[in-house]
Amino acid sequence: MIRLPLTEHDRSVMLNKLGRDTFETLLEPIPDSVRLERPLNIPEALSEVELIRHMKALASENIHMVSFLGAGSYEHFHPAVVDYLTARPEFRTAYTPYQPEVSQGTLQAIYEFQTAVVELMGMDVANASMYEGGSSTAESVLMAESVTRKSTILISEGLHPLVRRVVETYTKPKGISLIDIPLKNGQTDTAAISEFKGEPAAILFQNPNFFGCVEDQQAVIDAAHRHDALAILSVDPLSLSILEAPGDHGADIVAAEGQPLAIPTLYGGPGVGLLACSSKLIRRIPGRLAGATIDVDGKRGYVLTLQAREQHIRRHRAASNICTNQALVALGFLITVSALGPDGVRTMAEQCIQKAHYLSERLKDIGLNRTHSAPFLWEFAVKTPVPAHLYVNKLSERGYLPGLDLGRFNPDWDHQLLIYVSELRTREEIDSLVSLMEEMNHGR
Description:
Distance between the termini: 56 Å
Radius of gyration: 26 Å
Strand content: 5-15%
Shape: globular
Order of helices and strands: HHEHHHEHEHEEEHEHEEEEEHEHEEEH
CATH superfamily of the largest domain: Type I PLP-dependent aspartate aminotransferase-like (Major domain)
CATH architecture of the largest domain: 3-Layer(aba) Sandwich
Number of helices: 12
Largest sheet: 7 strands, mixed
């Protein structure tokens, strides 16, 4: 919608209604000492033609790079139908579905999204989505504290460092204690969990973890349950087409960032948080939950149900103060997994795995060995002879993003590079990356 400025006639009519002769007389109550006595420091307005030309010039400054950067935001193929359907005004302009009688399309989309998440994760119930993966993980921790009435959370050091910061932000006001569990050969040390002497509310771990290693999720979940604690698992949804579903191993809560199967990376955002749990925790799940019912005419209909957020129930009983969901990005997730189907999603995952393992072997041949010995899927860390940021800086000048410098999170990791391989990367691009890294090894 284009908003046209007021005409002089419009201004006159409005001022007349207010009993004023000029706009300046409306400002009389504002002291001169706080008025800005100069024009705003903004450029002159552009015509539509000039504005389009200006935006195209800005866009042309973007530099395309061959990316091997992942670490939470992943590049994948997205069918053209995703953009086409999510752009439809029925979805893009839809507002909060408080009135089910006029929101059946939106509510059905949410319901089907929840169904897709449940099927992927092997859980009993999923909500309508959260802001992004970090907030869904943090909300999972708050759920655990609320259910168990315990204030200690064990967190695997394999959890993404930025997600851990979000968890810290959410839990600090509630006095929840976060205790790190170390990794052993790239996997969560279950012996350290067993040796813990306290009474944790939950154990939070990620699979595949931040370093790309595949966890023994059954062992970690069992260790949590031996402590009478909940098992919270953060996952990459694409991995669920390859690995066994967390629900099949007894996970209590599963959180995820749905971006890999929803939308392109888009300069780092937005995302969509997935959150699912077992049926015994359904009344503690935060945010919206869409359910199916039968109307007075016996027809199937959809409604928001079991609301546990503070807008609908007494605030002190609310599981969370989150008051919305990422409906449009969640719709993109639903369309993507529906369009690709189980076979298509699995094929995408298999291609990522094959290409990542090919790259790992090629890097090993030039002396860049993996940091951890645990199995991995499509992301892995390698040891670098010089600080990893030098590889990032040098290769970006050649049009390649070789991965993430792990030294930005921990000085002890400054000789580690986290590399991700998408199914979109070609053999030529992978071989070129190896050649560039070999050149740098010899020229350091």
